[in-house]
Amino acid sequence: MVFPLAIQAQSTGDAIRITDNQTGFGARALGMGGAYSAVADDYSAVYWNPAGLAQMRKMEYWLGVKHDKFNNDINYLGNSSTASNSTTKISSIGFVFPVPTYRGSLVFALGYQRIKGFEYANNFKGISSLGTSRLSFELDTTGTLYDFYGKPVEKQEEVLDGGNINQYSAAGAIDVSPNVSVGVSLNYWTGNSDYSLNFAQYDIFNNFTVFPANFNDYLENNRIMTKYSSFSMKVGGLFHAGRSARFTLGMELPQTFNVKEDYLSESSVAFDDGEIIDLPTENGTFEYNVKIPFRFTGGVSAAFGPVLLAGEAKYTDWTQVKFKQPSNTDLTADISSLLDENIYFKTDYRETVKLSVGGETGLPFYNSQLRAGFIYDPNPLKDAPSNENRKYFTAGYGVLIDRIFKIDFAYMRGWWKETTFDDLAPAGTQEDITYQKLLFTFAYRF
Question: Pick from 416, 401, 408, 406: which is nearest to 438 by CA?
Fold first, then answer.
């Protein structure tokens, strides 16, 4: 008996997901809905707007802790199920150092932060007759393909993904005039994801009984461990319009991610007579690059007594994302096939503008602030329905103790829908997703 090997195939979604749906970091920033580029007066300015560092007059030690929870309510051909995934980790460590100046401001910052998580979970079971050539096998010497689909079978699948994208940052900002500050952050990006898929298909209705295609069940386990690395530069400007209003512009220069995937695929087929055939294991490493285009940010904030209001817009043209061949890899059929996917960035994706609004108000006790915000993050797919655009409500609270110790807390809740397909379960799952984040940051200023 001869069985074909499964083929690992990258798609445009593998490239888009690297920088899509970033939440950033900093409890004050997220408590205000991420509308922070025109506020940015703490260590988190290295991410939101490095020019904001010029507002700092004291040294700052910074520590952040986060808890993420992903929940998925799944419908597969009328069958309901749930899946979840959660993680708790250090989210950021930073140091801000203002340099004494005769006039104006010169400030530097160094640190580390997790800006995006890959948490995902899916778990479903149902009856389906749909299948693909992944489940077609040549079982005799005649060359005849026997399809283990086309009749009702039970499909089960469990998917789990996790990991983070992180930044190591060095940033600086300076006042170039009494009302204008500029800043630059240099970032080394690193990260990993660990994706696993366990699939099972059972002939529970005994539809496949004719030898040699007398299948009983088919099992497949896949795992992909991915490493990401990149360098980037972000520049920003902050303009003070009087004492109460600020305007900002920022730009992230194009960057290239190097992606290395270690993959493993194991599968087996069991027959009605009890015989089990283990298919050849497929494993290896695949490397490619992804080019991310310019991203632009604009923001505004205004203070009205104890109330601070802010808004921000971030523009990304996802049609300009591209797969690229690594310089240390010769052109192969796999790389060539991947480069052919570049046309789908143009046809399947679009430009998006991520919108954030938020604010905070001082409270008449304990030198504290109450915050709230909203984020609207469009799905980059061109034809995505409106319910697949991500929405987040945020809330937060902060308190300053003895004028030197700042504690901030933020809660974020997001919701959206997705439709997910794969080769083994082409009927797809309808998913109702909620995402929650708890974030604490501690800052010591002196």
Answer: 408
If 0-12 CB within 10 Å is exposed, 13-18 middle and 19+ buried, where does residue 306 land? Answer: exposed
Peptide bond connecting 212 to the previous residue in cis, omega within 30 degrees of 0: yes
Rounded to 5 degrees, what are φ and ψ at 12? -60, -30
Residue 5 pLDDT: 39
pTM of the model: 0.93
Task: Out of 35-39, 252-256, 326-330, 400-404, pick the least confident.
Answer: 326-330
Indicate the length of the chain as a whole number: 446
Secondary structure letter of residue 262 according to DSSP: E
In single-letter form, the type of residue at position 85 comes to N
* Residue pair 26/92 in contact by the 8 Å Cβ criterion: yes
Distance between CA 215 and CA 202 in Å, rounded?
8
Report how far residue 41's alpha carbon sits from residue 109's, in angstroms, rounded to the nearest whole number. 12
Residue found under tokens 């987040």: 392
| Cα–Cα separations (whole angstroms), residue 342 to 9, 231, 379 | 14, 22, 19
- Alpha-carbon span 185 to 171, nearest angstrom: 4
Map residue 135 onto helix, strand or coil: helix
Tell me how far apart the alpha carbons of residues 276 and 375 are, in angstroms, rounded to a whole number: 52
Instruction: State whether residue 29 is helix, strand or coil.
Output: helix
Could you tell me which of 157, 152, 132, 144 has the C-alpha nearest to residue 219?
157
